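step: validate -> pass
step: tokenize input -> pass
step: predict -> running
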Amino acid sequence: MRCAERYARFWSQLDVAYFLRSDASDVAWHTRVLHGRVDDPEPVVRTRLAPIGEGFQVVVYMPDQPELFARICGFFDSRNLSVLDARIHTTRHGYALDSFLVVDPAATSQYRDILPLIEAELTERLKTRVALAPPVRGRISRRSRYFPIQPTVDLRPDERGQQYLLAVTANDRTGLLYSIARVLSEHRINLYTARVTTLGERVEDMFLIDGPSLAQARRQIALETDLLAALQA
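step: predict -> pass
step: emit ->
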């Protein structure tokens, strides 16, 4: 199959939301590294230095499965890396295409040197279904301690009433996204898209989710309560 045909086949699995929410440089990168792996059953992990600013980007492509987002975040957490931005997509044929902007808050890593290691270790982690480890409780910055942000959790049906929008706001810290992901996993929540944004000391995360438990008001309250506890820990 020629390259142009493989590109077209890869793009055909992506919906309009992916192209609207992705930078042109990211679309080009994803296409270049994934167009030959459209139906590959094995995890594909690729990295590159961030085109702008600090850190590096990671893209994960594989058949979607329960706890996948939590397992990826758990890997970053285990290496004391912080996710500044995450964009979660599910393709038309049920594959996860998840991209992350990651930094080392302690600035102890030479990013170029660790990229091959990140690819190899994360690929191996995704091939092995291991239990989710407790999150590393990262310390918040001095500025966040003096100017704390009141954590908020807002859960509401989307415009079509078929899924739910979950908005989370809190002070940033290492391990925060993994803590959120573990709570979603514990409540058997399915994650379709996510937009994770770090603005200085403030984290603003938006998730499109569904799950049987969301049909019951009592279990919705339990989810919100557990998320608030995770944000405040």
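step: describe -> Residues 3-127 form one domain.
step: cleanup -> pass
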